[in-house]
Amino acid sequence: MTPFRTRARLVLVLALTTLIITPAWATHRSEAEAAIAAARAAHERAIDAGVEVAETATLIERAAELLPSRQYTKAVEFAERAIAQDTHAYEQAQRDEPEPGAAAAEAAIAAAEAARARADAVGGEWRDTAKMIAEAQGLARTGDFEAAIALAERARRQGELGHAQALRERDADFPDYIRQP
């Protein structure tokens, strides 16, 4: 093989290797601009949720300042850090908020407990009312709010019926044929 062919093959191999590897690390302006836009959107969402992280605004501005100097990879890194911080803050805030059905379940359970206590005060608490309330509380803890509300409503109704029954039977007496002489 001639030295010319060897060099030509070596140059060809290096050129192909460079072409294959280059897209893996090269960042274009459009990628940096898209990352900055995504960071701004995540930051707006965090602001709307009231969980703004002060550092992310600085990171976004630093990323935007790097565009004229063509430091696109560094700009993408700053934008991605800003996205990560704002997304984490937003997700944390979402986890801290109670689920929509939680408040309704708590209210239904509180109403059931009040009805049970009212029935108990006049001696009319039914056998399963407290068990139903406890089960409704367990369902609410697991996140099954619809079932918790339904069970709490049944327990509330039992409390009301027990209270009414106890008041109706308060002055009731055994009939003469049941009394022992």
3D structure, described in words:
- It is a single chain.
- This protein is about 80% helix and about 0% strand.
- It is built from 7 helices and no strands.
- The radius of gyration is 35 Å and the shape is rod-shaped.
- The N and C termini lie far apart (about 130 Å).
SSE layout and pairing:
Elements: H1 3-25, H2 29-49, H3 54-66, H4 72-96, H5 100-121, H6 129-142, H7 145-168
Helix pairs in contact: 2-3, 2-4, 3-4, 5-6, 5-7, 6-7
Structural class: mainly alpha
Give the overall shape. Answer: rod-shaped
Helix content: over 70%
- Largest sheet report: none
Q: Provide the gyration radius in Å.
A: 35 Å
Write down the overall mean pLDDT.
82
Number of domains: 2
Give the end-to-end Cα distance, rounded to a whole number of Å: 130 Å
Write the H/E string, N to C.
HHHHHHH
Extended strand count: 0
Alpha plus pi helix count: 7
**Uncertain spans, ≥5 residues at pLDDT below 50?**
21-26
* Beta strand %: under 5%
Give the structure's gist in a few sentences.
The chain is mostly helical and 181 residues long.
For the structure shown, list the relevant keywords.
single chain; 181 residues; mainly alpha; rod-shaped; signal; SoxXA-binding protein
